[in-house]
Amino acid sequence: MHTKRLLKIAAIGSAVAMLAAACGGSSSSSSSSAGGASGGASAAASAAPAPGGTAYAGPVGTGEGQLNVLAWPGYAENGSTDPAVDWVTPFEKETGCKVNVKTFGTSDEAVKLMQGGGWDVVSASGDATLRLIYGDTVQPINTDLVPSYADIFPDLKMQKFNSVNGVAYGIPHGRGANLIMWNTDKVKQPLDSWAPMFDANSPYKGQVSAYDSPIYIADAAVYLMATKPELGIKDPYALDQTQFDAAIALLNEQKPLISEYWSDALKQEAGFKAGSNTIGTTWQYTANLAKSDGIPVDATKAKEGATGWSDTWMIAKDTPNINCAYKWVDWIASPSANAQVAEWFGEAPSNAKACAETSDKAFCETYHAGDTAYWKDVYYWNTPTANCLDGRTDVKCVPYSEWATAWSALRA
Amino acid sequence: MTTTTATPRGFGYRHPQFRLAGLLAAPMAWLVVVYLGSLFALFLTAFWTVDDFTGQLVRTFTLKNFQQVFTNTAYLSTVVRTVSIALLVTLFALVLALPLAFFMARVASPRWRPLLVALVLTPLWASYLVKVYAWRAMLQPENGVIAWFLQPFGLSGPGYGFVGIVVTLTYLWLPYMVLPIYAGLTRLPNSMLDASADLGASGGRTFRSVVMPIIFPSIVAGSVFTFSLSLGDYITAQIVGGKITMLGNVVQTTYVTNLPFAAAVATIPVVIVLLYLLAVRRSGALDNL
Q1: Do A401 and B21 count as a contact with CB atoms less than 8 A apart?
Q2: Closest Cβ–Cβ partner in B28, B54, B159 for A131
Q3: How many whole angstroms separate alpha carbon A309 and alpha carbon A75?
Q4: Does any domain span residue A271?
Q5: What's the gap in Å between the CA of A229 and the closest CA on chain B?
Q6: Which of B54, B75, B144 has the CB atom closest to A412's CB atom?
Q7: What is the tens place of the pLDDT at every residue in B141-192?
Q8: Measured between CA atoms, how close is B254 to chain A, in angstroms?
């Protein structure tokens, strides 16, 4: 019939039009993706080519009135978690930049959200920064426009994970280690080692809580550095195939011990409260929250060493709110705000002057803010690449995309 | 005698096929371009890969993703686990829904029926997350309601895991199973039951030979909901599943770093549901949804 045929033609026509659009779109962006692909391939072969982008020349003018912030939980508090904990509202008052905060649970989430667009600044850990830089998602930062930068601890500036070829891509926020937390009611002796979390005969079988992200493979590698030195692991993010397989084997052995893998800090805390988690790998932030909620826990850095993170505030590539973005990174790195966020989250501040502003005068000492020896066996989250990060040229290391595939197969 | 009547001279009147096309243009655009088109674009990416370092899409045709999915026993066991969860949820929902629907349609007086239907529907108004978190609280291994209830019998609660997922999903999708069966039972003519009794059939025999064949399409219609909704679920597994993952979780965790792989995994539940629907079509269940 006429109408049926017409409808059929219309359906086929729109399908063809959409197909043409998809193919046409892919051909126009295939040049950029080919460029990206060859850039990635040559990174595997030699030193990575400098990613594009120019920093804002400045000067930092009046704010645009808006700022979209992507942050780790606890980094951009505006009074909604605890009315007394708020460094966003003073920022809004002073600069007129209305702040819209979204938190994420893992670096993978952060990378995906940034790639989706709409966010002006992001607090990126080392396992996200390089992906954002080489993926052309963030812009270089002009440190002259950030007065607080001068007071940042020197061993945080221009590191492998926040700078490329001498160009800075962000402002250091603070650093911390991933700790082992235990329920003090059920665990009589304080723990000091990762062994109860990996040992097949662990007394806490079925009550262990581990981090749900591919980067957790590095935690297994850190444990192997101490328990199987014959593997020769020097950098938990530079694993050749043999070392990587050993780490995955260890994680498979750990699986029966696990009660839950966590990516939401609050869910882990709830698990400790409910009794389904007895020990686990955690952030000081979660331990602090749990203690303030009356849950009997304690946490410490394990003696084998630990993974950790050193976070960097980065500015999105084509953000319309560039002035607000620079005002924010300067604000959050300034002594007063840096001290507040460090105390609330439970991490070492990045600004040396913040140590004078903390309410607990011994805070910087407790968190080893300037203690370079403490950070020697803390391996900041980094992005594994095929080019071994520890400098080995005789082997190829496993890149992050394969970490992610192996992790999803492990979790399946 | 001739009568002149003014004929409408609109374009739509003279060309009825364009009138129909115009009416259907917007929904067709929505269905074909937005819905089917986006699904098609997603499955197209299943044949691509990502750059190792930056994670950006590389648009070269490859079957690597499908190879990875079908040669890895971990993913195959996830498929089996997800399908078994979906089947178990359908079964338990059916077992709970049949007596309930029968009571609502046949036993309760007609005065109460609208109220009963409203009561069955009310849980659907509550947020999905609220319901699942309520179950998380109830399934708590030590202090939860279920554990407390089973304690006098010396049993421990199921805790979080496979059982938790099945129980929670059964609760969530029960209204979707009750309503089609209820609708089917209300259409069941009373004369059938009288005739069956006259021929000497017992209650059970009547149920097996008369009622079940008539409401079978309704049961299948309800099962379409519970099966496909359970097959794609991932939030429940995250909240009450402990470390158990379903197909949806695999997609969720991999779409960030490896969208083509996630797309390949996502084709599996689509194919399963399509096969299920094709099988179901012959039973006439889709006619009276």
Answers
A1: no
A2: B54
A3: 14
A4: yes
A5: 28
A6: B75
A7: 877 888 888 888 888 778 888 999 999 999 999 999 999 999 999 988 889 8
A8: 7
Provide the number of CB pairs (under 8 Å) joining chain A to chain B.
152
Query: Is residue B136 one of the residues assigned to a domain?
Result: yes
Beta bridge partners of A152: A351
Contact status, residue B285 vs residue B276, Cβ threshold 8 Å: no
Q: How far is A137 from chain B (nearest CA, A)?
A: 10
What is the tens place of the pLDDT at every residue in A9-48? 655 655 555 554 444 333 333 333 333 333 333 333 334 4
In this structure, the answer to whether residues A272 and A390 fall within a common structural domain is: yes
How, if at all, do strands A66-71 and A121-124 pair?
parallel
Angle between helices A126-134 and A2-45 (to 10 degrees): 110
Cross-chain Cβ contact B243/A258 below 8 Å: yes
Interface of A with B in 39-58 (CB under 8 A): 39-41, 43-44, 48
Is the Cβ of A312 closer than 8 Å to some Cβ of chain B?
Answer: no
On whether ipTM exceeds 0.90, the answer is no
Question: A400 with A277, same domain?
Answer: yes
Cα A10-A13-A14 angle, rounded to 5 deg: 85
- Closest Cα in chain A to B140: A274
Residue range A338-348: mean pLDDT, rounded: 91
A163 and A93 part of one domain: yes
**Residues 208-237 of chain B whose Cβ lies under 8 A from any Cβ of chain A:** none
- Beta strand A163-164 with A167-168: parallel, antiparallel or unpaired? antiparallel
Determine whether the interchain pair B141/A10 forms a contact, defined as Cβ–Cβ distance below 8 Å: no
Is residue B20 in a domain?
Answer: no
The CATH number covering residue A345 comes to 3.40.190.10
Measured CA to CA in angstroms, residue A224 lies from A212, A350, A406 at distances of 19, 30, 18
How many domains are contained in chain A?
A: 2
The boundaries of the domain holding residue A260 are 179-282+385-411
A289 domain residue, yes or no: no
Query: Is some CB atom of chain B closer than 8 A to the CB atom of A274?
Result: yes
B81 Cα to chain A: minimum distance (Å): 10
DSSP helix, strand, coil percent of chain A (3-state; round to 5) = 45, 20, 35
Shared domain check, A72 and A171: yes
Considering the domain architecture, whether residues A255 and A394 belong to the same structural domain is answered as yes
Residues of B in contact with A26 (CB under 8 A): 59
Q: Which residue of A has its CA nearest to B34?
A: A18
A406 and A373 assigned to the same domain: no
Residues 6+ apart with CB under 8 A from A75: A103, A123, A173, A311, A332, A341, A345
The CATH number assigned to the domain holding B180 equals 1.10.3720.10
Can you tell me the mean pLDDT for A273-290?
Answer: 91
**Phi then psi dihedrals of residue A349, to 5 deg:** -70, 160
Phi-psi region of B96 (alpha: psi -120 to 50; beta: other; left: phi over 0): alpha
Q: At what angle do helices B73-102 and B259-281 cross, to 10 degrees?
A: 40
